[in-house]
Structures are given as structure tokens and as C-alpha cells.
Amino acid sequence: MTFDRRCSGIADRRDFLTEGILPAETPTSDSSKSENSMNTSVKLTTESLNQQLVQANENLVIASIKCQTIAENLEKSSAKMMHLANHDFLTELPNRMQLNDRIGQAILLAKRDNSKLAILFLDLDKFKAVNDVYGHGMGDKLLQAVAARLQIAIRSSDTASRHGGDEFILLLSRIGDKDSLCRTIKKIQHIVSASYLIAETNISIGSAIGVSIFPEHGEDTQTLIHCADIAMYNAKQRGTNQYEIFSPDIHNPAKASLE
Fold first, then answer.
1. Edge to edge, what strands does the sheet with 117-125 contain?
2. Residue range of the domain that includes 41
3. 202 vs 126: CA distance, rounded Å
4. Residues 25, 27, 33, CA angle at the centre, nearest 5°?
5. Residue 81: left (phi > 0), alpha (psi -120 to 50), or beta?
6. CATH number of the domain within which 141 lies
7. Per the record, which residues fall in region Disordered (predicted)?
8. How far is CA 20 from CA 60, 108, 212, in A?
């Protein structure tokens, strides 16, 4: 409720307070002039006190409404700050901090239920070319469109997040067997790779996806993300719209660079 609407009832409240408070007029009696003067003085004093009471009440109501309005605005600002702290500013997807928290919760749930979860590390193919040809503004709109499609492609119980640049990480909880997981990955890639119409321009991209599975490839957040990242790199080397599930013997480019 707005401040003006809250104040609209003050006039009614004033009428309620003053109704019946002011003394009624009395007929002129044969009293002395001094007695009449005293009655008049009492009446004026009573009217003044009543007016002060009404004004004080109005001030109290207005102050109360202002305090409530300030509290509501602070609550909205706090909620907005919390949202910004946990979401990517461009795509509105959960950011790394929120993703890590959700993976941690999903791991605890998987341990309790003796179930599995999967981490999908997705990197867009041809995104750099889009930025180079059409500019970063077009690239940003493409990332927003991809984010919207990812949210459609997964269940409400799963999480799609932006890792940075053109990289996204998906958390799939309570997955089935590997055949079911592979079908899900192919569906995601099909949805992401469908042509985009942005600013009257058709844009086609693909994706490379690396996959790690809890508890098979790790039992903590960072290990699972790292393994999915390695698998994604290997999938990307094979061409567009490829995916790979992590295994200990696949090529690790970071490790190779240190040898």
C-alpha cells in the first residue's frame, strides 16, 4: 500500500476523534458576566486541547505510515541485493556461489538416498565467432537466449547456472542409468543448437558437454566440476555438439602442460 493511500483515512479518523468530544452549546443563563467569561474560557481551552489531540494523533499516524513504508522499502532492497549476490547479472541464472551451495545440498541428499547426480559442463561452439562478427551486444543476447532454453531443457528440480563467458554448468539430481543420462544430454544439445533469431539475424551454434557423476568421479563439488571440465575439453576436440563422460584415463590438458 502506498503512503498516500495509507494517509487517506486520516480525515475519517479526525472526525471520529472529534465527534462528541467538544462540549455542547448551552443556552445563555442569568449568570454573572464573570461566570460567562469563565465558561467561554473553558470552552476555548477545551477546543484548543481537542485540536491539539487530533493533530497529535494525525502526526502519530503519519509517522507510523512513514516507518512502515521505510521498512518495506528496506525489505525490497535487501531481497534485491540477495538476488544480485546469488545470480548472474546477464542471464539471471544462479551464479557460481549459488551453484556450489546447491551441489553441496544435492550431494548430501544423494548420500542419504543412495542416489546419483551428474554435473554437466557446457561450452558453446562458435560463440567467439558471433562476438567477432556481430559484436558483444549480440553475444550477450545470445547468452540470454541460451540460458532461457537451458531452463526449459531441464527439470524444475535441476539447476542451470552460468559459469562465466560462454560456459554453463548444469546440476542434474537423482539421475537414472547412463543410457537415460545420455538421452538427457542429447536433448539438451538439440535444444541449445536449434537456430536463434536475434535482431532479425539467424544464428546457429553448438555445444560441447563434459559430464561427471557422483559418487563415481568425485564426492565433493570442486572435484566433480573439475572432472566435468576435463571431459568437456575432450568433447570439444572431437567437433561440434559432442559430449563425453569423464573417465580417469582421458586426456587432461592442464596436467599435460605441466609434464
1. 159-164, 167-173, 117-125, 206-214, 242-245
2. 3-86
3. 13
4. 100
5. alpha
6. 3.30.70.270
7. 21-41
8. 21, 68, 79
